[in-house]
Amino acid sequence: MDAFADKLGRVGAWCGQNKYLNAIKNAFQNFMPATISGAVGVLWTNVLVNETTGLGALWSPIMVLKVLNPIFTAMQYATISCITIGITMLLASEIAEANGETGAYPAVLGFILWMMVTPTSFAAKDLSASFIDKAGKSHGYTLGDFINVTGAAAKNKITADSFTYSGILSNYTAATGLFTGLIVAIVGMEIYNMFRKNDSLKIRMPEQVPPGVARAFEVLIPTCLTAIVIGAVGLVCQLATGAELNAFIFNVVQKPLQSIIGNNIFAVAVLYVIISLFWCVGIHGNNMVAAVKEPIFRPLLYANTAAYTSGAAQKDIPYVMNLTMLQMFGEFGGSGVTIGLVIAILIFSKRED
Asked: How much is the pTM?
């Protein structure tokens, strides 16, 4: 038993000292206030001030507060629906700090690198809408179904594909783009750190130049080279697979992990056995696996939130296993539902204290 505890302790020590696991864990922990704020927005607009699914259906006077709903809807979108942006910037900052970098610039660079592999131009014909008929059957349409180009436009080869718009889709800013943000932040900041430490790539300014300006020129070339490398990775992925980097990572990494681990009761059981084993040797098991658990189970929680706020029926909420479900049934009163042990001690312990 001592040998097993020693080996487990070594694993725990390695996890606790690992730069990337620590950075991921810290990024999610630092984003927690935003997550809870977004949850307040969901609570307000869907559970309280809502005449269809909330308290408003039972007590109509509360609907006088509906005028405030846009505030809470915006709060929900800016937090839960933009988690990838927040986590990417926080993680980039954590990695840079671990590499000896200071200041807020690494967070900005992390956002820039993520934007470089995120599509910003789309065909308007792909905009979609749907409705559910009285029989409960769903009907979906795209704008392209209604576009009919005729006359001078047709003669000049204007087609449905000619109608485009620019922006960032919530598919990328929300939890579906989370793994891309994690990978880009880690890889990008390590590449940036490699270039930053190369003295031959630094532009030295005279001493009389203000420190802020001198610092900007010092990291100019490393920033430019890092952006080129990340952009090239995105382009190669597009040319080699036919899919942009975000879709490729989601389909190859994030989606399989969520299927194998995220919505699997046996994988969840193994996860909590590992957490409990760490606790057996005096290591905070939940903290040890947070860097693995958060990126897998938090997107499932947000997918459920998106389905609920869109008005989906209870049977259409996709994931039973998600972050809050684990926290409620696996960590209530402490990891492994420790409160049960506390209650048992209070009832059956023969010690007076």
From this structure: 0.82
